[in-house]
Design a protein that fits this description.
3-stranded antiparallel beta sheet; alpha/beta; 233 residues
Amino acid sequence: MVTKEIQELFDQAQHIVFMTGAGVSTASGIPDYRSKGGLYTTSELDRPEYLLSHTCFETEPERQYRFMKENMYFPQAKPNIIHEKMAAFAKSGRARTITQNVDGLHTRLDPTVIEFHGSLYRVYAPIDHKTVPVTDYLTSMYRKSDHALLRPDITFYEEMPQHVEQAVATVAAADFLVVVGTSFQVYPFAGLINYAQNSAVKISVNMEHINTTAPIKQIIGDATEFFSEIHLR
């Protein structure tokens, strides 16, 4: 999958920005969202967009909690080769990752990752914003001490994403933008690409074509294979 020309792009770039989605974590055993058979396309699940909304948190928190606990938490999952290679590029000082993923796998290896939609593994009580261990949350959606309602620090539908200005500035500084494992259907994340410089090289690595008006070279295939072939020099 990785041609000489693509490897040269990685070798020459000084400000690589990886933009990642759920497809990055499928090799770690975490289901995708919008691809065939993904979480959002499984017929027995009732409108995940609603179940992951701020409205649902306000009106049916027990139902939302049950949905997230049963479908989104995979505490035994481990980072795969994609996370590892991206973290290695970040450690070299030549890359930064912005992710839609809320599974926390990127940040296990790279604390500089911008978690655009937050993390399931940071949990707090909205009443006072004090955090609790995720293990407590997976036992009960209420805080032990005072029965305060808990929630994960993720962006529900109807809420603003996290670190937007930081993400925009990071993309604007990129000389090489690499979109990986995302259908690019969720905004404003997908809109970040519009802040890239015209001179920045842009590629995507995904199992299917992504819909974007930005000029981008699309590589269709398995991202784990792609990143297994990429060398950090």
